[in-house]
Amino acid sequence: MSHQRVEQPASGSASEPLQYKFADLIADPVVRDRWEQVRRYFFLRESTYDMTRRCNIRCNGCYYYEGEKQHAVENSDLEQWRRLMQAEKARGITFVVLAGAEPSLVPERCQVCFDEIPLGAIATNGLKRIPGEIGYRLHISVWGDDETSYRTRGAKEMLVRQTDNYRSDPRAIFVYTFTPDNIDQAETVTRLLAREGCQVTFNMFSAPVGYTGDLRHTPNSLSRTRQAMLDLMVRYPQTVVYSRYNAVAHTHRLGLHDLYGCSYPRRNPSTDVGLGRSFRQYRTDLGWDREAACCVPDTDCSDCRHYAAGSAVVTARLFRHATDPDTFRSWLDYVDTYLAVWVRDYPRGANLSQNLVSPPGFDLI
């Protein structure tokens, strides 16, 4: 890795390839320090776990209530959960993602997981506070302002209740999911979160398999979302945890699988070292199915721009991005963002690239 040679077109001439050694890419001390910082986290090995079938709201386009996983019998035996975590640790899993339906409804199961594997994150709607003893990173989902949330999620005053629960909580980061209908609301929501001292990162609505609702993105909404993300990064640098390359990767006309090739077992037949071998997505009965295993099961893979998927799919493509200094810096920004979003107390740095860099092998949009 440290001396990988790759080729790129020389400036002004596509016929004269310029080669960079990896040492060239990290020659700048700031870049080298960032590389050394992120590589210390390459030990992370994730799997995900549905904690319960229950939820206290119903969202338009919810991933959980699609496919077979929603019908799995719910296991409430804490000792069996503990043994699962111990077995996961034994096979090398170092990072857990607890999801659901809604994990905050079963805090005792979350506590068992934290006791056995203390690195991880919980995806929650934030309406019920998760006890402070559970020290995972908390991802609190936001789908627009309160009026939109009521329309698409059926819950009133979500932002008020979410910020009341997690204001000044170092575990919490709000995840604003862009749909075609809430792009113009992102500034208002970000301003409110900034005033409350909260952090926010961005997600993209990615249609579940067979989805026929009105939240699927269009070329126009992708373009508008990218610009909104870039504007918010500039206006709220202390609040928004994101990079310019994140915006490019997640608002491209092509989904993540087409751009980078998905690493999760559902689309990756390889069982060599990597996610294809180590990743499992456990259902509430503690079973799992390799054919369906990915970070957000039952997503339409061709439409997948999900932030959770990108955290593994883009991050895994180091070699494709080790082509020139700016592409490599953009990749480092992406990994730095991913670690800040997912790992509690990770010391995120300033973005290294101020340019919009194309995904390797593709146009910018």
Brief overview, please?
The chain has 365 residues and is α/β, with parallel strands linked by helices. The chain is built from 14 helices and nine strands. The protein has helices at residues 22-25, 29-39, 78-90, 107-116, 146-153, 158-166, 186-195, 219-235, 244-251, 256-260, 275-278, 307-313, 318-321, 325-342, and strands at 6-10, 13-20, 46-50, 95-99, 120-124, 137-142, 172-178, 200-204, 281-282.
Q: What do you see in this structure?
A:
- The longest helix has 18 residues.
- It contains 14 helices and nine strands.
- With 365 residues, the protein is α/β, with parallel strands linked by helices.
- It is 35% helix and 13% strand.
- The protein has one domain: Alpha-Beta Barrel (TIM Barrel), CATH 3.20.20.
- A hairpin with a 2-residue loop joins strand 1 and strand 2.
- The N terminus is likely disordered.
- It has a seven-stranded parallel beta sheet with strand order 8-7-6-5-4-3-9, covered by helices on one side. The protein has a two-stranded antiparallel ribbon with strand order 1-2.
- Helix 2 crosses helix 14.
